[in-house]
Amino acid sequence: MGAKSLLALSFGAAFVLGQESCPGYSASNVQQSGSGLTADLTLAGEACNAYGTDLPNLTLTVEYQSANRLHVLIEDQDHTVYQVPNDVFPRPGSAGSADSSNLRFTFTESPFSFAVARVDGETLFNTSGTPLVFESQYLNLRTSLPDNPNLYGLGEHTDPFRLNTTNYTRTIWNRDAYGIPPGSNLYGAHPTYIDHRGASGTHGVVLLNSNGIEVKINDTAGQYLEYNTLGGVFDFYFVAGPSPVETAQQLAEVVGLPANVPYGGLGYHNCRYGYQDVYEVAGVVHNYSEAGIPLETMWTDIDYMNDRWIMTVDPDRFPMALVRQLVDYLHQHQQKYTVMVDPATAYVPGGEYGAFNDGVEQDIFLKNSSGDLFLGVVWPGPTVFPDWFHPQSQAYWSGQFDSFFNADTGIDIDYLWIDMNEAANFCNYPCSDPFGYAEENNFPPEAPAVRNGSPIALPGFSADFQPPSSAAKLRLRRQENTASMMGLPDRDLIDPPYSIQNAAGSLSNKTIHTDIIHYNGLAEYDTHNLYGTMMSNHSRNAMLSRRPQDRTLVITRSTFLGAGQYVGHWLGDNISDWPHYRISIAQMLAFSSIFQIPMVGSDVCGFGGNTTEALCARWMMLGAFYPFYRNHNELGAISQEAYRWESVAESARIAIDIRYRMLDYFYTSFYEQTVDGTPSLNPMMFLYPEDSNTFAIDLQFFFGSSVLISPVTEENGTSVDIYLPNDIFYDWNNGFAPVQGSGKTISLEDVDFQTIPIHIRGGSILPLRSESANTTTELRKKSFQIVIAPGQDGTANGTLYLDDGLSLEQAATSYISFTWDGSTFSMSGTYDYGAGVDISTITLLGANSQPQSVRSNGADLSATYNSTTKVVNVEANIPLSGDATVSFGQVSAFTGTASSAVSSNALLLASVAASVMCLSGFW
Ligand SMILES: *[C@@H]1O[C@H](CO)[C@@H](O)[C@H](O)[C@H]1NC(C)=O
Ligand SMILES: *[C@@H]1O[C@H](CO)[C@@H](O)[C@H](O)[C@H]1NC(C)=O
Ligand SMILES: *[C@@H]1O[C@H](CO)[C@@H](O)[C@H](O)[C@H]1NC(C)=O
Ligand SMILES: *[C@@H]1O[C@H](CO)[C@@H](O)[C@H](O)[C@H]1NC(C)=O
Ligand SMILES: *[C@@H]1O[C@H](CO)[C@@H](O)[C@H](O)[C@H]1NC(C)=O
Ligand SMILES: *[C@@H]1O[C@H](CO)[C@@H](O)[C@H](O)[C@H]1NC(C)=O
Ligand SMILES: *[C@@H]1O[C@H](CO)[C@@H](O)[C@H](O)[C@H]1NC(C)=O
What we know:
By secondary structure, the protein is α+β, with helices and mostly antiparallel strands. It folds into three domains: 22-255, glycosyl hydrolase (family 31) (Immunoglobulin-like, Sandwich); 263-663, TIM Barrel (Alpha-Beta Barrel); 678-917, Sandwich (Immunoglobulin-like), CATH 2.60.40. Strand 1 and strand 2 (36-43) form a beta hairpin.
């Protein structure tokens, strides 16, 4: 204890010691091959033992894995140091050679350092400034960077999308982080960054390491980025880009391609914590329908559980028979149902609690060193935690799902929500009396009063939607504390000499203790950051085992590198305020465009605290352009379902209408990301990588690659300054009228609370549905409207992917490419999926005149022209079953002379009328 405190006290000094007098390593026995090299690295002097013991012998392995990927691994010679298990993170394959690589690895033998450069000379990574430190509980490596670099990634955080470059610390240690404070470690671990250098290109760097990490970015010894980890090895993947989109694609090759989602998963979701009973949930479904706001999926938080025990229902408030009726009702109306499941399982020995008993029988819960179950405190009180490394953990988890979520006898959920999987534990370290802690802090919290029968009229629900007369409540008592006092186990795993700036305090605080050893012998100290992703993988498999034919949608809180292969992510417990509304964009962009977890979104209208009418109206519109679009609210906060205020209801109707008309456009982008990692959301700098004005923009973004979303971001405001690069755009809210961007910020005034500025980027062709619908099932019956938005060169292109939206293995799909060459629209591709609808309309934007004729297949098509908006609408009626062309005779394209003022004035005029309408009764 004394020695530890001394180290803690001398933190600053010891760190300097690490930098200045650690000996570094010398390389020897260098073996070169066509595909890379290996070398021995030997400690080059007296050990400094700054934060643990220096390892004397390391090996360096360098592999040119593909033309654009280089793998650099520095590990201990004995292979005893922990590395992320291959079955949790399968390594990418390797088939490259030095000769064919766009990257070049060079090194200095002594003191050892290495550099990665492009073959044209640009140095991307260079560790020569400081000695490499590789100790038992501490690794340190620093790369120098250009001044004021454009760095992005290193999640999960709520700092700006473009990372701070001075005096900046990014701690990576998964944590239950209520309120998602900036500058702190949050739920997920993504030690990936991209470095964008404008015309010199973009590259990406992944450090595959699941230990606690502190990245420091500073400019006080030249500009640098430095890794400090509490263990593991240096396992780097460098990808060459050189464009941001190519960088994203290459990062997907490292971490794995994201899973596709069911089409319906892109519909609008509603949830809250604090629905008192099944009637209230049914009432919300009913109210959405009454309000004419399309609700695709209803969710229930932990409220449905009996005393917060997973895999149970509260027999009074959520009796199984009624929950089943609710689910039937939803399914009959083409809607879906989702509930939350946590990993923490109530500790109930000797009772009749199946999830606990089965787990004990199969021995799948984590244990402490004395062999007793490891206990924390979560919602149900004292809890145990599944050990996802146990060989039976999948069978156990799937078994629980098969029975509790059984279609015939249980809750037939469509999607799944998993939470608290960092893992969260409310009990402060050392949590020596979980029973006392639970008692004092009221876990499980008291359930709300039982209501007698449905308090609200629920037309459409059957007459027996009533509570059971006097069902005896199954309430299993907790047992006396049988766990031994834990004491301090191996202290290195609890209190390592180097402390990362974990906002929860010590490493083990508020989570599973880091000295817990998993069934397979791995320490939680090393694998903590994997817990949520392993639960994600298990949960996805359990959902697929229930409905083996169908894609599933699992939304998780905690993630690690590669989690997108299994799940989507909601951005956690945000707060209902404007800063959280704004930061949601940067967060979402990092997950979609860098971490390859594209099914992402924040709690719309905000989770914690009370929302306001203005905020909720704006957020319902912004959320319509999150891939994952869910309104969610906290227990105790004022209600915020979209129908609670007429202004918000109207915002929701308008935004959902737009989202749904764009749904196949977005589904196509999402599909493309699952195929090759092309981002389905784009930061502005991804599409304008040479325009330095875009590098720090994180309040505007592209939904897909063609639709620029520029929400109003100021509290209660009705104006917004938006940046338009030097390109042609078309204003969605002004009849698609062209707007010439000129690399300047323009002000949009009087943007009412039912308007979100949307611009289509020139050069795009968008497949829209011709109208929206109440559910995505109905939406799929609507015909298509193809919108051609010519670029500055007069041409445009786009794609449309069609499938049945649900099957895991598709029997037939269509993938259609659209092009516009300035006078002819063509489509070509595959048409195996029978969409059952046609292209009813082709809309050409930016036309300076009415075309003399529009012809397809020798026939004249009827066309109308709007000279104000410069839009031609053609009645096309072209089947989606084969290649086709439509030629527009003599149409001259917009030449980009109209000023942006045209559009903003028009928007101003249009929105004044609307705002007058909305303001009545709003303020
Ligand atoms: C490191 O390598 C040297 C030279 O091979 C060997 O003598 C020494 O025992 C090794 N040390 C350890 C701790 O393995
Ligand atoms: C940045 O460098 C300054 C000066 O050395 C130092 O005081 C500060 O702690 C550093 N910040 C970080 C995050 O490393
Ligand atoms: C660096 O940041 C820390 C904490 O974020 C702050 O306390 C300190 O004053 C900053 N130092 C400098 C030199 O800006
Ligand atoms: C990042 O920089 C911004 C702007 O300078 C500053 O407000 C913020 O506190 C910084 N965040 C951290 C974590 O250093
Ligand atoms: C654990 O967290 C609690 C609440 O944030 C804090 O008061 C306590 O000091 C922390 N304990 C340790 C060991 O970090
Ligand atoms: C939210 O509003 C309710 C009702 O007005 C109030 O009781 C509660 O204190 C508010 N919560 C917060 C965090 O302001
Ligand atoms: C925004 O509106 C809310 C009421 O909806 C009000 O409480 C708040 O003070 C307003 N904020 C500003 C900055 O005017």
